[in-house]
Write a structure and sequence with these properties.
Its EC number is 3.1.4.-. The protein has about 160 residues and is α/β, with parallel strands linked by helices. It contains four helices and twelve strands. The strands form three sheets. A five-stranded mixed sheet has the order 3-2-1-11-12, with helices on one face. Strands 4-5-8-10-9 form a five-stranded mixed sheet, with no helix packed on it. Strands 6-7 form a two-stranded antiparallel ribbon.
């Protein structure tokens, strides 16, 4: 079993509260718009990190992290990208891959809106952790944590923080 902390849209912002949650996880996953490599460096000092770059990320971040990150964790096929859309309204950049080879867990960021929902047509779970950074229109900063174990995603928890 692995405990996952999922975050997105830090926009160069990291604080002790985020790092405290990272310490309690086995892995941290970042769904893009990192903003500054200092964010990922701080997270990597604490736990293993899987991340993708987002639309605001510069060439340095794009050299460090891919556009899409597909991997298996505890028997769960995971695909992370930054701009992904939602079930029934996926981004054209990822839509064909999702239809041809759907993962069990599809993660994206970008919208700053926390949303977790099943896609019954593709038989996957979609997660967007919202935004944990301070830049953007969101009124509450959010992250998700959950466990993955033997092909199952469980113990989903929303973490909310004031702006």
């Amino acid at each position: 079993m692995k405990k996952i902390l999922l975050l997105s849209d830090t926009h160069s912002y990291i604080d002790e509260r985020i790092l405290t949650y990272a310490e309690k996880a086995d892995e941290v996953w970042h769904a893009g718009d990192i903003g500054d490599l200092a964010v990922t460096e701080a997270l990597q000092k604490i736990k293993p990190l899987r991340a993708v770059f987002g639309n605001i990320d510069d060439h340095e971040i794009r050299k460090e992290f891919p556009l899409n990150n597909r991997f298996s964790c505890e028997g769960v096929d995971v695909l992370i990208t930054h701009i992904g859309g939602y079930p029934g309204r996926y981004s054209p950049a990822i839509r064909e891959e999702l239809k041809a080879n759907p993962p069990k867990l599809f993660i994206c960021g970008h919208s700053h809106i926390l949303k977790v929902m099943p896609d019954r047509k593709l038989n996957l779970l979609h997660m967007n952790p919202g935004a944990i950074g301070k830049h953007g229109f969101h009124k509450v900063r959010t992250m998700l944590r959950f466990t993955v174990d033997q092909g199952k995603i469980d113990n989903l928890e929303v973490i909310e923080m004031k702006r």
